[in-house]
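Example record

One chain of 270 residues, shown exactly as stored in the release files.
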Amino acid sequence: MAAVLRSIPKSAASAAVAVTVAAVSRTAECSDDHVPSLDIGWSHHGPLAAFDAKAVRRGFQVYKEVCSSCHSVSRVNYRNLVEYGAWSEKEVKAMAEDVDVIDGPDASGEMFERPGKLSDPLPSPYPNDEAGRAANGGALPPDLSLMVKARHAGVDYIFNLLTGYVDPPEGKEVLEGLHYNPYFSGAAIAMPPPLMDGAVEYPDGTPATASQMAKDVAVFLAWAAEPEHDERKQAGMKWIFALGCAAVVTGFYKRFRWGPYKTRQITYLK
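Predicted structure tokens for this chain:
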């Protein structure tokens, strides 16, 4: 057996190992209780790619007009929208001031309402978790701030989930109050299909199809989970360039500094 294994070319052995690993991985996926999310191929994937600012802005509109009635993004503050640059400070201040925020206590120990400001987080649809559970049959809608990070397929999962509602297959029973979605764990989800064509009206004239809105809100949630994404990539490329230059300089320094010592000839005379 050992002789047979030694006779197999290394390239063929590597290919066999790769095929075996892929087959095991695919078998594991087939045994899951949901369909694996499809890789959409996003424009912000890649070492030099940034988020599409227009898509982030449209996605925030979809979140605000559709998703925010049930879900929060508590880790995103109004100032983050200004820092990203897709909105002007004037626009964001106007949005914040439209929201009444309970603050306090004041000098008399009483809580009070005030207009929102840039340092406030985006408002939650419920005053507390218990109110959220009471309004949704005991289930608390999850906060979406880190949802892209919390799911294995990330932004692909969000898009496939939002566009994956279909009729259950023959013989598949779905309990009352649940909806069939093969991309959700268990394929039965309490959230009804949230998107439909024309649910929002984009100011830039982009057709508001369900798939377009799903794409935009997925990009927004990807940005919400990592607002420093673009800056991190820029800083990373700067560091790679600087370290590359330092490596070249170090190599030349070593060559010219230590070259004479490595090539010298020492002769010992009696």
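Notes: Residues 12 and 18 are 10 Å apart (CA to CA).
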